[in-house]
């Protein structure tokens, strides 16, 4: 792709997100989301490979569906309440529809099936854009409509996302899919706290963006497409291996590291709101994600290339 076209596409991507984040009218928010989707399609399909074409198609269909649902819910709200203001979403059915549409747009379970497929079908740098930048616009909509979204639906979405992100990530060998399930689990934590305390959600989002950026740049530098590839990071650059280890442990949410802070605050806030069973379930699901982060850490820092076997030898 020529630099000029790439620049135009990337600036459209940025513009789309900014339009959504700064709009008060539902139509403008929808235009921003559509611009966002249309700008990333060519980036996904630059490889000219059946897998990337498939990924682009899947991404386009899910995002177009989610955008249409968002537009539909805001139309129902405008029809019943007489306002197109984003902060005035006060009609219950349109709020429920909106929360499901945003779940589909972000990739929250049970509407998460497109995310691992799309991230796997595109290059690591494209996957990085989808896992970080593309989350900003829908999260800003959640932030703006927060007071009206049904909290029970958000709590359930958060719990299922965290659990499914942990469970499904255990089974993966491709770093792209592992990052997708990691993203689903983290978004689950954000959805969980969104209706209770939105400033913790923003902090969680910022921490997630920083850690995911660090990890994706490490994976791109070491060209690690599978878990097996991460074992050779050490031979390329020992410093990178150490940074990768710390980032992975931080993503898993281990105490002295940054990633533990949002988890700690969210669990504390859930207990304050008398949602102790919910907090317990979230903590348990975090252990599942921690397992696959630890497995990646293990292959990255504690093994030498051919011997990545995690079993006892016969002799």
From TrEMBL:
One of its GO terms (biological process) is mitochondrial electron transport, NADH to ubiquinone. InterPro entries: Complex_I_Subunit_2, NADH_DH_su2_C, NADH_UbQ_OxRdtase_chain2, ND/Mrp_TM. Residues 25-288 form the NADH:quinone oxidoreductase/Mrp antiporter transmembrane domain. The keyword Lyase does not apply. Pfam families: NADH_dehy_S2_C, Proton_antipo_M. The keyword Translocase applies. GO terms for cellular component: mitochondrial inner membrane. Its main location: mitochondrion. It catalyses: a ubiquinone + NADH + 5 H(+)(in) = a ubiquinol + NAD(+) + 4 H(+)(out). Its EC number is 7.1.1.2. Belongs to the complex I subunit 2 family. Core subunit of the mitochondrial membrane respiratory chain NADH dehydrogenase (Complex I) which catalyzes electron transfer from NADH through the respiratory chain, using ubiquinone as an electron acceptor. Essential for the catalytic activity and assembly of complex I. This is NADH-ubiquinone oxidoreductase chain 2. The lineage of its organism: Eukaryota, Metazoa, Chordata, Craniata, Vertebrata.
């Amino acid at each position: 792709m020529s630099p000029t076209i790439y620049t135009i596409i990337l600036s459209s991507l940025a513009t789309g997100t900014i339009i959504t984040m700064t709009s008060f009218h539902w139509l403008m928010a929808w235009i921003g989301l559509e611009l966002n989707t249309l700008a990333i399609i060519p980036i996904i399909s630059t490889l000219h490979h059946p897998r990337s074409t498939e990924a682009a198609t899947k991404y386009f269909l899910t995002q177009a569906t989610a955008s249409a649902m968002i537009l539909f819910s805001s139309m129902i709200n405008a029809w019943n309440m007489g306002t197109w203001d984003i902060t005035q979403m006060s009609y219950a059915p349109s709020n429920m529809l909106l929360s499901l549409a945003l779940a589909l747009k972000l990739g929250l379970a049970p509407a998460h099936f497109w995310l691992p497929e799309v991230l796997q079908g595109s290059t690591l740098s494209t996957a990085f854009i989808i896992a970080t930048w593309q989350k900003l616009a829908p999260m800003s909509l959640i932030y703006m409509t927060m007071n009206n979204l049904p909290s029970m639906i958000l709590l359930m979405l958060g719990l299922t996302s965290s659990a499914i992100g942990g469970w499904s990530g255990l089974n993966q060998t491709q770093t792209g899919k592992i990052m997708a399930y990691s993203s689903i689990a983290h978004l689950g934590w954000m959805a969980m706290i969104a209706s209770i305390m939105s400033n913790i959600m923003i902090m969680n989002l910022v921490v997630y963006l920083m850690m995911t950026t660090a990890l994706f740049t490490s994976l791109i530098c070491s060209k690690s497409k599978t878990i097996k590839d991460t074992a050779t990071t050490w031979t390329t650059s020992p410093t990178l291996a150490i940074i990768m280890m710390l980032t992975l442990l931080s993503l898993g949410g281990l105490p002295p590291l940054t990633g533990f802070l949002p988890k700690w605050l969210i669990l504390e806030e859930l207990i304050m709101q008398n949602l102790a069973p919910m907090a317990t379930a979230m903590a348990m699901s975090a252990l599942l994600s921690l397992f696959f982060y630890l497995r990646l850490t293990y292959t990255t820092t504690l093994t030498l290339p051919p011997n990545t076997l995690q079993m006892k030898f016969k002799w």
